[in-house]
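Lab notes, practical 5.
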Amino acid sequence: MTSFQKLSVESLKSLSRLCGLSSSHTKRELISNLNHAILRYSSSPSTLSNSSVWSPHVSNHRVLSVDMGLRNFSYSVLDLPDFEQIPTLSAWSLASILPHTALALTQPDFSPAVAAQLAYTTFVEDILPRFNPDTILLERQRHRSGGSRNVLEWTLKVNMFENVLYGVLTTLINQGALKAQICEVLPSRTKGYWIRNAVLATSSDGGGENMSTRRKPVKNKYALSKLVKVNLVKRWTEGVSFDNPAACKHVVFTESTIPIALQFHLSSSRSSRLRKLQSGATSAETGTETENADDVGLAAGRKLKLDDLSDSLLQGVAFVQWQRHRFELAKAVTNGADLAEFCKFMVDRHTPEMGMEELV
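Output from the prediction step:
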């Protein structure tokens, strides 16, 4: 722990965000979390290579990143031949996993038994046999709603599905039928990694860092962050084509995922909606229904929910980068490097990759 003691709290928070850890702790807790995160990299190569945890000593690792939902269930599959190589986006999909019946959408009929059968059918009979992942990332679901009865009811359904899914996967692991690491990912960690929090925390009486005091407060930060993430993936996919699948520096697209990448460049309406949200426009002005926040970021008539597709991809790429940052931090600590300089280098390297241009 002495290696981190000389760092300021802000530097520790920056390192925590870069490693996918919570930054809302005391200095002692931040140091403890960072030490725990890099501890496994001091293990022997033979120990790490025999585990399901991705590490520099594990090759051909597959990450399945899931953005939880019932009507909009999105996942991306990242293949990593080795620890340093850019991952290949082997699959990227969005679908409804609900049965095609009106009864499935009513609360009384959506019971734990129905949710359990959906989890089993979706994962055990479909996704797991098709992709055989080594790491499964499950986006942690919110436990609060926007106050609307419809949103509250839908939140309860998704929470129920999430709980039974963990039960199904844990049972398979304990029975030896699934050899994979299950990781829950808080949406706030992914958002904090790709979007600078101060950018979203604007107010009319002073604002956040790099924000104008004349700007109106953002009323719907959830919708704004969704749109920023879509624009970030849109920036990633610029230049991606069947002739140039490696135009993105974060992932290499495949023949099956390039058509989805091209979807991010079919409409410009998202930019105008983003500007309205920045200026404090109401949900009615932006065409966003507060009763159904999951529909944010989809232009009228669009078949693909780009915000959900963005979430599953950004979550997967963030996880990959978090592991690499932890490894780099472990090496820096072992080699006795100046951690203040190391932190500055890491922050400067990551900052251009964040979704900030659309907000300033």
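Observations recorded by the TA: DSSP finds 14 helices and six strands in the chain. Residues 262 and 335 are 44 Å apart (CA to CA).
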